[in-house]
Amino acid sequence: MKKDQMKLLGCGELLADPRWRLRPHFHSIHELIAVKSGSMLLKTRHGDLVARAGDILFYEAGLVHEEISQPDDPVNTCYLGFACDRILPALPLRVQDPEGRVAELIGWMLRDQNEGRPEADCLALLDMIIRELHWILARPKNAWLEKVRNNMRTRFADKLSLADVARHADMSRFAFVRKFKRLTGRTPMEELRQIRLHEARNLILRCDLPMKAVAAQVGIGDEYQLSKQFRRQFGVSPSRIRSQPPAS
After folding, report:
1. What is the pTM of this model?
2. In the chain, how long is the greatest CA-to-CA distance?
3. Domain extent listing, the chain
4. Closest by alpha carbon to 42, among 14, 88, 75, 9?
5. What are the mean pLDDT values of the chain's consecutive 10-residue runs (248 residues total)?
6. Which of 155, 167, 170, 204 is deepest in the core (most CB within 10 A)?
7. CATH class, range 3-138
């Protein structure tokens, strides 16, 4: 896909708000939505689905859709809209982005737009996003990796060590780390830290728990470690995230 055949028409972020919903509507442009945390009910002519963290949604131009944030798990997304003067290769309504690469690229685009980067740079990122989505769709699922990740997502609040997650996979720590890193590009404990931090972000956005309690609920040692890791992951402090007004 040539970059001069696409046009980026905007991107942004929706912060978690349990009252947020969009009535049935459609756009004359394509939309990509990355669900960062929380969940929302999506209604289209294809039926209803619940989109959760790690999902990428593609709304083809003209698709009527309704979005409703789940009150007990308010959704946080980043999104972009674009036009294309040629037919795109087929994309499904929902694609799972287990490694978070598409969401990260959309986040880069949002940052670049806010910083006034040239349009050509943003179009290059858009081209990368489309290519990454097709790479994900073409790549066969790895049952072993999904089992390991599901174990982490279920037990992230526990005091899990590398030995614990390796034992669940019936492997030595050395062999486990080597295989996991080969499949994902990061270590198991880096993956676990990302899961915990995204859960922490969700808690901070949707409730008034003190940071000490948030750290305890997501398996991070203390408030200091939470703040340090949170800044490194999201580029902002937990208290700053909480003070931001919700999107309307």
Report:
1. 0.58
2. 53
3. 3-138, 143-243
4. 75
5. 68 88 91 90 88 90 91 89 73 84 88 84 86 82 86 91 93 94 84 87 81 92 90 78 54
6. 204
7. mainly beta
Phi-psi region of 206 (alpha: psi -120 to 50; beta: other; left: phi over 0): alpha
Amino acid letter for position 172 = S
On the CB side of 220, CA atoms within 13 Å amount to 26
Alpha helices in 70-116 (DSSP H): 101-114
For residue 97 the two structure tokens come to 């982005």
Q: 143-243, which class in CATH?
A: mainly alpha
Report the alpha-carbon angle 200-202-205, nearest 5.
Answer: 110
d(CA 135, CA 224): 38
Pairwise CA distance, residues 180 & 157, whole Å: 21
8 Å CB contact between 66 and 23: yes
Q: Check if the beta carbon of residue 119 is closer than 8 Å to that of residue 8.
A: yes
**Which two three-digit tokens encode residue 43?**
């209604």
Residue 49 CB neighbour total at 10 angstroms: 15
Looking at this protein, which amino acid is placed at residue 146?
Answer: E
- Cβ burial 71-81 (10 Å sphere, 16+ → b, else e): eebbbbbbbbb
